[in-house]
Amino acid sequence: MNILIIGSGGREHAFAWKLNQSSIIGNLFVAPGNAGTASIAKNLAIDILDFQAVKKAVLQHQINLVLVGPEIPLVAGIHDFFLADDEIKHIAVIGPQQYAAQLEGSKEFAKEFMVRHQIPTAAYQSFTVEQLQNGYDFLETLKPPYVLKADGLAAGKGVVILNDLQEAKDELKSMLHDQKFGDASRKVVIEEFLKGIEMSSFVLTDGKNYVTLPNAKDYKRIGEADTGLNTGGMGAISPVSFANDDFLTKVEERVIKRTIEGLKKDNIPFVGFIFFGLINVDGNPMVIEYNVRMGDPETEVVIPRIKSDFLELLIAASQQKLDQVNIEIDNRAATTVMLVSGGYPETYQNGKIISGIENVKDSIVFHAGTKNQDHKILTNGGRVLAVTSYGNDFNEALKTSYKNISKIQFEGMYYRKDIGFDL
Ligand code: AMP
Ligand code: GLY
Fold this sequence. Notes:
The chain is α+β, with helices and mostly antiparallel strands. The chain has helices at 10-19, 35-38, 51-60, 71-75, 78-83, 98-105, 107-116, 132-141, 165-176, 245-265, 299-302, 310-318, 394-405, and strands spanning 3-7, 28-32, 42-43, 65-68, 92-94, 124-128, 146-150, 159-162, 187-191, 197-205, 210-218, 221-223, 227-230, 235-238, 272-281, 284-291, 333-340, 364-367, 370-373, 376-379, 383-391. The protein binds adenosine monophosphate and glycine.
């Protein structure tokens, strides 16, 4: 089996690392990949939104299965593009078609889906610019804090939470009227604020059956104690210690099963990952968001805890045979700590020389934003490396990650020293 992974972050390096261990892997390609994926697979320098270029690469390298990492090509219809083309429609694509990708690509679509299938989520209403006054009226009926969400993809920045009613109204106007998030805020979902601790669950589904992957919690804020700006994620742990059997049973019964049943009832095909962003409200899971892909950096702790052959799972998903496979999970905890460029998530510089990776022992270094140049590894993004370790519990795993991080250097390197602090 020849495989093409689409994407270039830590998630894609973790996928490549795992697929590389499969007993049935043939040639492994990553487009466009990074310096980490280049060490275990062949990187292809193609624009992942240029689907004709993807097709050309797939035919040239006799790819049998395409694993799509990020949401943008899914929301843009990469899977539909394959299905519509006689030359490549037989090639398995892991990642939903455009219609189903709206579970992530449109907050309103996701909310309507959840309400239709009795999946617990915050009460909400959505508004367009013509309904601005109705939006103000709705805000007045709510208690602070106020949660405003741009309907479309906004690179993780589209959710604004405000304590002051007037500020919330001004924000609503800026989203709808001044198109603060461009097209993504042509519609805005306003929802009830939920208080609780967050975590994420993941499944791989073929649209009818699913396997449950290890759960995880990520740390999104740049600063320690969850302060400062939002980032793509500064670290993650798996499993989540507060998610006991009782809570996880509720997640399965009320969220996962109803979602898969809902897809079936609505006749929505879905081959790929569903990432359930959850919040624990007094012991009950509520869905904050769906993603139609794996998380990053969650993948860097979820994938290392899967013992089964990952490629066999992907093939089973593509053949609607996930009911015939078992997934084996490593009992150990896994943690990852993200090393980021100084200045991230605001402006930062690329091209800093990274040294010391070769001295790391007992951790896995997944590359997030790196590139090779003149036999050196250079930083090439805000999030640069994810240092993953195992342990009997997450504290032990974290110790190993932090010990190894002290061996890695690049100018401006920053990381959070308190991953897992709230557990
Ligand atoms: P989302 O992009 O929908 O995941 O939202 C980003 C972040 O906003 C989440 O990770 C939560 O921390 C927060 N958030 C979103 N919706 C709510 C809500 N209804 N109540 C409280 N916090 C929320
Ligand atoms: N770490 C959050 C995400 O991948 O969306």
